[in-house]
Structures are given as C-alpha cells and as structure tokens.
Amino acid sequence: MDDHVRLRPVAEGDLPFVERLRTDPDLSGPFLWDGWRDLRRFRRRWEEDGWLGDDTATLMVDGAPGGGGPLGVVSYRKLFTAGPVWCWSIGISLMPEVRGRGAGTRAQRLLVEYLFANTLAHRVQAETDVDNVAEQRALEKAGFTREGVIRGYAFIGGRYRDEVLYSILREEASPGAP
Predict the structure, then answer these.
(1) Could you tell me which CATH number the domain at 2-172 has?
(2) What positions does the domain N-acetyltransferase occupy (predicted)?
(3) Of 84, 152, 172, 174, which sits most exposed with the smallest number of CB within 10 A?
C-alpha cells in the first residue's frame, strides 16, 4: 500500500470527505475526535487560502493512480521554538480501512521530504497520544526519533492526555529512505 500514496493540495470537491473524516467520531477514532464543531470552518478556510497558508496547511493523502482516491489528510503548522527559530509540527488523519497498512508512514515521510525541500525548517516534529502505539510505530518507521512524553498536552474525550513527542532533523531525513 505505501508505494501507492501521494500528497496533493485539497480541492473544493474534497471538502465533504474532509468534513466526514474530521467530524465523525467513528472515522476520526479515539485519538483525534475533539467534539462537534462548526462544519463551515472547513469551507471558510478553503476559501481563504485553499488550506495552503504560510504558517499552517493541509494536504490530501491519496492512493496513487490505480490505488484509488482519498485516504486521509496530513497537516503542518509552524511552531516558534526559541527566538527567531521555528519548526513544523505535523499531523495525520486516515480513513480506518487504510490504517495499519503503511499509508501513514509513507504519507508522513513524503510530508517531511516536502517540508525540507521547500522550507528553511531544520526540524519537523509530531505529537501523538501515549496510547496511540500504531502512530508511534509509523513515526519511527518514517525516521522520527522519540524525544519524550509531554504531560497533559491534549484534551480529548473529556480529559487531559499525555502525548509522545517525536522529531526528525533536516540532516536525518534523506529522500527515499525507508
């Protein structure tokens, strides 16, 4: 599955898919569903900048030609770290039927390659729930290093949750690496 994954900008026709993926608790899963929100926010954001802003963006994860349609989304946002230094924080949301088949690892690897090839960032990081073992494995397979636990970092399901912090530095990422 992982060699049939590509990233592309969100198109207007993708909005219903993204709305379902991000607002249906059965599709988002226990680690991403954060409650009912205004569905129009997706369209407003798309009309504002096509979800390709300078500080935050979302891309579609597609099955390559012959691999079939949208699989999910990846996103990135700029985080200022110290002084003028910043990094990207990335996230992913995939349809349940493609999870655990390599698509997440491949999509995150493609996103890292894209960010290092097209921005000045030196670091890309990702945070995931301490219980999301599948995502932790995907990040490690994509070349990320586990840095530690951030206590009480997310609020999901009515309680504060600990997250695991992962990162990859520019010199650690090489295009085509496993």
Answers:
(1) 3.40.630.30
(2) 5-171
(3) 84
